[in-house]
Structure formats: C-alpha cells, structure tokens
Design brief:
189 residues
Length: 189
C-alpha cells in the first residue's frame, strides 16, 4: 500500500519523496532602505518646509528690527527735546539717527556707488531728498539745511540764526524720511 495514497484511492506505483520536483522554502528578501516609504518622504518634506519657514521668519524679523529701533530712537529724541527744549541737541540727535538709518538701508552706497558715510554737505542733503518717498527737495530747504551746521555747534552756542530753527518742522521732516519705506541696499543676514 502506498503511504501517500489517501484511503479509498487505488494504490499505484510507489513515489519516492526525494524524486518529487519540490523546492525548499524561501524567505522573502530583506526590506531595502531605498526607496523610503511614503511616510519618510512626507517627513522630509515637512522638515524642509519648516526649515524654510524658520529662515524666512528670521529674515522678516531682522528686517523689522531696524524699523523698531528707529521708532524707539525717534520717540526717545522727541521726548528728550520735549523735556529739555534744546534745539541743538535735537538737530544733533536727528542728524545721527538719519545717518545711521541711511547707512543701514544703503550699505552698498547710493545709486552712484558713493559711500553714504562719506556724504557731507549738499551731497548729504541731496541724497536724503533723492531717497525720500515724496521726492521733494525738503532737506535742501531751510528746514533741512539746519542738519549741515547745527549738529556741529557747541552745546552752549548763542548763534540765533542756526539755533532758532523750526524744531517741529525738522522733526516732521526727519520722521517722514525715517518712517518711509526704503529700498534695502543689499546686506542681508
């Protein structure tokens, strides 16, 4: 009787199990690391987007920092003038603030390539007028000309021609230039 035959089946020639065309059990191949599963692609995309968002947020925050500093310094200058009434100190402080803001906004120089820090006299006033949002020549008027000499006078100066300027007009003129949008000159960090 054939041991492989089922009951009720006729017995036939004996089959040797070693002669059967069977293959050994094969395990599946190990899982490859490439290509990654879709979840890993999504995680990578999320990390890249998060990094890009952080870089852009930092750049935006830093660009706004100059504006915040200018607002704070302008408020301090106006408060100091309000409490002391010292016009020469006002002109001095506004001149310094205008110069610092111009150097920060235009680090590569003006449109002609001139270094902002080196501009003096009429060139300085012309630069302020060219970069003003209104495009008017207000700094080259009597109000703005005070910035040429008043900051360099001694604190106890008795020169009424220069010390008697319209302080409120100078504040308004400087404030309009400082708070207007300016094209940034190139330095980004």
């Amino acid at each position: 009787m054939n041991p492989l035959a089922s009951p009720g089946q006729a017995s036939g020639p004996a089959i040797n199990p070693a002669e059967l065309p069977l293959k050994d059990i094969h395990l599946p191949e190990a899982v490859s690391w490439w290509p990654p599963a879709p979840g890993w692609w999504l995680l990578l995309a999320a990390i890249i987007l998060l990094g890009l968002a952080l870089v852009l947020l930092r750049r935006w925050y830093k660009s706004r920092q100059l504006q915040r500093d200018i607002h704070a310094e302008l408020a301090r200058i106006k408060q100091t003038y309000k409490s002391t009434g010292n016009r020469l100190k006002l002109a001095q402080d506004l001149s310094i603030l205008l110069r610092r803001a111009a150097i920060s906004w235009y680090p590569q120089g003006d449109e002609n390539g001139k270094d902002i820090a080196g501009l003096t006299g009429e060139d300085w006033l012309a630069f302020l007028d060219r970069t003003a949002s209104q495009g008017e020549r207000k700094f080259q008027s009597d109000t703005g000309r005070v910035l040429l000499s008043a900051p360099y006078l001694p604190a106890d100066s008795k020169d009424k021609g220069i010390a008697g300027f319209d302080a409120d007009a100078l504040i308004a003129l400087s404030e309009s230039w400082l708070l207007a949008p300016h094209k940034r000159g190139g330095r980004r960090s």
